[in-house]
Each structure stands twice: as C-alpha cells, then as structure tokens.
Design a protein that fits this description.
With about 575 residues, this protein is of the alpha/beta class. The protein is built from 12 helices and 25 strands. The site of adenosine-5'-triphosphate (ATP) has 15 residues, from helix 2 and strand 8.
C-alpha cells in the first residue's frame, strides 16, 4: 500500500538525459564534472522551444552541481543583431536561470581560423571554387556516393594561399569555400566534404565588425567551441543526431587530451497551431502580420510573457511534456492548462463587463450607495478582500438579459427567475427600454434588500449569479481576445504559403468594456481572473487614461476535442 505524504510532491522519474548524466557522474566521466551550455544563434527572439532546451541545459547544471554557460552562436553576421542578444539574455533571466559566463562563438574566430590553417597544412581541407549549387548536386544521395570536386586534390600550398586570399577579402562572396576533405562516399552525408568556411564581406558582424571576411560553419564551430570551453555534455535537439559523428570528427582532429564533450540529443518542442521557425517568425514580424516579436499570439517567450504566462507556468508545462528521443507534436491546450493551473490559485477574481448594458434597480434609493466587500480569491485568503461600491445603476453583460427567454434561460428576464448580482443582492428583472430599432438599451429590475451576500439573507440560493460593475465606480477598458494564430494544427506541414493559414480571427479587440475600479491600479502584466470570462493581464500598452487587458486563456478549454 502506498501512502501520500502531504507537501511532498512525488518525484518524477529521471529522463534519459538525466539518467546518462548520473551514470557519467558515477563513472567519473570528465572527473564527474558537469558543464553544459545554451547556444542560441542571435538571429531572433527565443521561443518556447528554446525554453525547453534552456530548462534542459540549465536544469542539468543546477541539479548536478555543474555550470551552464550562455554561448551566442554568432557565426552568421547576415542575420544576427545585438537586439537579439539582449532579448535572449532578458528572456533566460526571466525564465529564472543563471548562466555562469557569457561566451560568443566569435570570440573563437582566431582560434578556429588557426585550426583551419592547420587542417589545410595536414592535407585535410581544401578550397573549392565551385558554386554552392554544384557542390550541392555533387553531394549524392544517402544510397549513392557523391562526386569529388575537381579542386579536391589541389596542393597544400595552393589551398593555403587561396584561403588567405579569401580571408583578406580578396575573393568575391560565393566564389570559394573551404571544405574538409573527408569522404565523398561516406554513408553519413555530413561527412561528404562538409563546408568549413564561407566568405561574407558585405555585412558587418555585430561584434567583430569588418575584421573577418570568412566565417566558420556550424558543424565546425560548434564542437570546437564546446571543446575550448570544457563542455562535458553538449545537449541539443534530435536533428543534430546525424551531425554527431562529424562533431566528434572535428574535435578528434585537434584534441590534445582525452577530454571529449559528449553531444546528446532530445526531441524538439512542437506545438499545434503555431510556427516556431525563426525564419517564419521573423517574416510574421517584418511583414506586420503580428505586432512584433512579443505579440501575445507569438510562441516567443516575450509573447507568452506579455500574454500573461509566468515563467513558472512555462516551466511546469515543459516539465510535464518531458524529453524523449522521438519527435512529436504537443497540443497547445496542454500549455493553456498550465496557465490555468498557475493562475487559478493566485489571480484576483474581478468583474469585467465586456459588452455592457445598464441595469437600473428601480427600488434602490436614488443618490445613495453602499460599500460591499468581496474576497479577492477564495483560494488565496492571503490576498484579502476588496471593497465594491453598489448603487442604483450598474452595468451587466448584455447577454445576461433576454426579453423573451426560453425556459432554460437562468439569467435575467422580465417575469423570470431571481438572480444574484455577484457579492451583492438578489434581483428580479421587471422590464427594459428599447431604442427605435428595437435594441434593448436599459434593463430594469427590483432587488431584495434582505438578500445581501454575507448576511443571513444572503444565504438564499438562486439558480445563477451574474457580474456587475457600478456605473459611476467603474472604469473603461479595452480588451484584446486572442485565438490561435493559425487555423490548422501544423502549418509547417501544409503545402503552400504558411501565411495563408493565419487565423483571420486571431485577435479581436473590444472597446468600451467596463471594469472594477480596483483594476485602475494594476501594473503592467498583473494577472486577473475576469469572472466567468477567463484569465487576463494588463498589457504594457496600457496608460492611466486607457486600460488594456489581454486574454491569457479562457476559463475552460473551449477547443477540447469532442469525445
Ligand atoms: P531556427 O532553426 O528556427 O533558427 P534554431 O533551432 O536554429 O532555430 P538556435 O538559436 O540555433 O535556434 O537554438 C538554440 C538551441 O535551442 C539549440 O540547442 C536548439 O537545439 C534548441 N532549440 C531550438 N528550437 C527548439 C525546439 N523547438 N525545441 C527544443 N529545443 C530547441
Ligand atoms: Mg540553429
């Protein structure tokens, strides 16, 4: 029999990477030392997939008494920028992780260059003058060998001379590359003379300026950088598994000790109804299809933050989905439920009327008001109570009134049932006023003065409770309702242009909402539950004159697949 001890959360079982790390520690691999790195390319903002890698890289270091460094993989100046460097650091810190040191692959450009010279001198690298297309054509297929370049066997001296010319900027972009001379018939395509260096002269590097005219390719730079830094476990996503032998090969060419960093791979995070390729996200931003990298519809860390997600919710989600060795697609509703679980016990619960209509309580004295009190969150007594002003005129949701209501309508209708105004009194509709078009513009009701919540009469039960805010003590607000950014589950798997698959209703802006005055003192990103509506937070665009709220997530999963 098992017993549950309170306050002791069950420890989840170790994932395969943690198992490996524990075994390495037991076996004294690298002296039992643990050093990881998170290696983003500063060519975009971090997305929640990166957060998964971050939780792994930093988590392993934290849990096993090791260190994790942040290394910017800045080997392609064409796409990189300091804006991205800054946002990446801010997002990692916000997620709650601390790096030991910050490194840049560009710090190693000289060392990498020197090693490339050494490889040329050892006859293991050559300058190829063929075009990128020709080189690609000669790659062969997994089952047929590639074709050797006619430049493959040029003398060492000539290779050295040409590589120096490339590096001095004397050769046009694309005219030459440096390739490792490995095996054009290898069953691993990555061994078929991979490109080590390409020429880039037209743009400045965000750190090294115009110093370099040749830039190292990922496979060459990444493993060497790990080696230079003393990384023990180089953790990355599964698409790099086929690169691993080449990663090892490059390190073997130069290693002067037995130490070897160990590359291991886990599954990427893929989420339904979104895209997580930085190229596609950049397109969305640049073409104004979303409002910036931190648009609350984006799967970026900054977008989720602005949407009302906490770091805790994101980390709980990542912990829940875990790490495996097979690619899969995760349902976005899992992420959304992590937000609900985080917010339910801590977000103050307030009334916000999205589509207001005025309700006049005709038997309530005119020019009079009273102060009621309500709990901020019954699940969090430490949040205390707040005061509400109640008076003769309040706003309610238009949808909470129906003039001719069917029997199963439990809210307000003349001659219909009694309804409780949340934390206040029981009322009964008596009628309404309409404009010339027949639209209801005002609703009338009478209240039961002996039914106040919190008093003995307040215990009287009625079928439904509706939200309200007092007319003179409420504040106007704009509410932004977000839906999924794409209308198909996996936009990247569809043919055609992914932009055509954007959900046209992914953002609905509602003006003229009325909210409790309590919300006027909210700070940017503060979270709330709008009773019956969903979880919302204050958008940083808000001003004292205009409150703006984002819907983080609805109260329930309205997209849940029908069984
Ligand atoms: P893109 O190809 O869209 O530019 P990337 O994967 O190349 O993205 P990097 O900045 O190179 O982005 O990634 C840094 C680290 O984050 C890498 O170790 C990579 O494996 C990891 N990573 C990137 N995307 C995901 C994802 N969807 N799930 C888990 N880890 C990811
Ligand atoms: Mg990359």
């Amino acid at each position: 029999m098992t017993t549950t001890v309170e306050n002791e959360s069950p420890k989840r079982s170790l994932n395969f990477i943690e198992q490996m790390v524990e075994e390495d520690i037991r076996n004294g691999f690298d002296g039992g030392r643990i050093q990881t790195r998170f290696p983003p390319e500063p060519n975009g903002y971090l997305h929640i997939g990166h957060a998964k890698a971050i939780c792994m890289d930093f988590g392993i270091a934290e849990n096993y008494n090791g260190i994790c460094n942040l290394r910017f993989d800045d080997t392609n100046p064409v796409k990189e920028d300091v804006e991205y460097v800054d946002s990446i650091m801010a997002d990692i810190a916000w997620l709650g992780f601390e790096w030991k040191s910050v490194f840049y692959a560009s710090d190693y450009f000289q060392q990498l260059f020197d090693l490339a010279i050494r490889l040329i001198k050892e006859g293991k690298a050559y300058v190829d003058e063929q075009s990128a297309e020709t080189i690609a054509q000669q790659k062969g297929t997994p089952t047929t060998a590639g074709t050797e370049s006619p430049y493959r066997n040029r003398p060492v001296e000539e290779n050295l001379e040409l590589f120096m010319k490339m590096s001095r900027g004397e050769v046009a972009e694309g005219a030459m590359v440096l390739r490792a001379k490995i095996d054009m018939a290898s069953s691993n395509m990555h061994f078929r003379d991979p490109i080590m260096y390409r020429i880039i002269t037209s743009v400045e590097h965000h750190r090294t300026g115009n110093t370099w005219k040749v830039y190292p390719m990922y496979d060459y730079a990444h493993g060497q950088s790990d080696y230079f830094e003393g990384v023990t476990h180089s953790l990355c996503t599964l698409e790099f598994e086929v690169h691993r032998p080449l990663y090892d090969w490059f390190i073997d060419q130069f290693a002067d000790s037995d130490y070897r960093p160990k590359q291991r791979e886990f599954n990427r995070l893929n989420i339904t109804y979104t895209v997580m390729s930085k190229r596609k996200m950049l397109q969305l931003v640049q073409e104004g299809l979303v409002n910036g990298w931190d648009d609350p519809r984006m799967p970026t860390v900054s977008g989720l933050r602005r949407r009302g997600y906490s770091a805790k919710a994101i980390r709980a989600f990542i912990d829940k989905i875990g790490y495996t060795k097979t690619e899969a697609m995760n349902d976005v509703s899992l992420l959304e439920s992590a937000a609900r679980e985080d917010l339910k016990p801590r977000a103050p619960r307030v009334c916000a009327i999205l589509d207001p209509i005025k309700l006049v309580i005709t038997n309530y004295p005119e020019n009079s008001s009273e102060t009621l009190t309500t709990e901020n969150n019954p699940e969090a007594p430490e949040l205390g109570n707040r005061d509400l002003t109640f008076a003769r005129e309040v706003y309610i949701e238009r949808g909470d009134f129906m003039e001719d209501a069917p029997k199963d309508f439990f809210r307000l209708s003349p001659g219909g049932r009694e309804v409780r105004l949340k934390s206040a009194y029981i009322i009964k509709a008596t009628g309404c006023k309409k404009d010339e078009q027949g639209n209801v513009v005002e609703v009338y009701c009478e209240y039961d003065p002996n039914s106040k919540s919190g008093t003995e009469g307040g215990n009287r039960k009625v079928k439904s409770t509706i939200n309200w805010v007092e007319v003179n003590n409420s504040v106007e607000a704009e509410v932004r309702l977000y839906d999924r950014l794409f209308s198909v589950e996996n936009p990247s798997a569809e043919e055609g242009d992914f932009r055509d698959l954007i959900n046209p209703n992914s953002l609905q802006i509602i003006q003229g909402c009325r909210v409790e005055p309590y919300l006027a003192s909210a700070k940017a990103l503060d979270n709330f539950q709008f009773l019956k509506v969903g979880y919302f937070n204050l958008d940083p665009d808000s001003t004292a004159e205009k409150l703006i709220f984002n819907r983080t997530v609805s109260l329930k999963d309205t997209w849940a697949k029908k069984a």
